[in-house]
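Quick one: co-fold with pyridoxal-5'-phosphate.
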Amino acid sequence: MINDLNEDKRQINSNLKSIRSQIVNATKKSGRLLQDISIIGVTKTIDVDKMEMLYDEGIISFGENKVQELMDKYDRFQDRIKWHLIGHLQTNKVKYIVGKVELIHSVDSIDVLGEIDKRARKLGIIQNVLIQVNVSGEETKYGFSPDEVAHVIKVAKDYKSIKVKGLMTMAPNYENVENTRPVFRGLKDLYDNISKGNHENVKMEVLSMGMTHDYEVAIEEGSNMIRLGTAIFGKKNVDIRE
Ligand SMILES: *Cc1c(COP(=O)(O)O)cnc(C)c1O
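Sure, here it is.
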């Protein structure tokens, strides 16, 4: 057992080293630095021992895609770490996470946005959110179409207990990763356009795009927040829960 744990620790450490060097290469191409890119450690299905190892490596932002799993793990880590909800959020589950998570990446309906605002107001806080955009139009993906985002930004002015901090997308899992480039570029253009305007309750600071398969391209195209699971922890075990 002890040996297994040491092996996990060694693996996570060495994975992070190579991720950081890949990030450095990608940022050079877009004139930025390693520290301009936030790494969200995606910890869905990952046990708390490994999460502690990641924390020890200095990654303090964890992303979960299910509310229940986030809640279970929250009890252990509390606010030692910054929690990110990155998966689809049902309106009836909003109440469990508002005020607990640093950032909700996955706002994909006006209803959910309104519910987050309502719950945040009750708590007397401002909840930071991103608008999820389905740039590629894949039917299996959540998110607003790029055309709908202007409307969401407009609606946000009535929601004083939220702050829209940016945009998030997931690119299709193309075999040739170069095919993701137009997707990321499309979101960056949208982000820049919104940034030019002056919108209430909106402050564009976060462009959340890039996962294990495509984070280098995403960074080259302007991402400043990447969400990495497999790259950090390796391929999932066979007893994957889902
Ligand atoms: C699982 C997940 C990730 C991380 O995926 P990897 O390919 O394991 O890096 C990133 N973003 C979202 C929304 C996810 O659900």
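If it helps, The mean pLDDT is 95.
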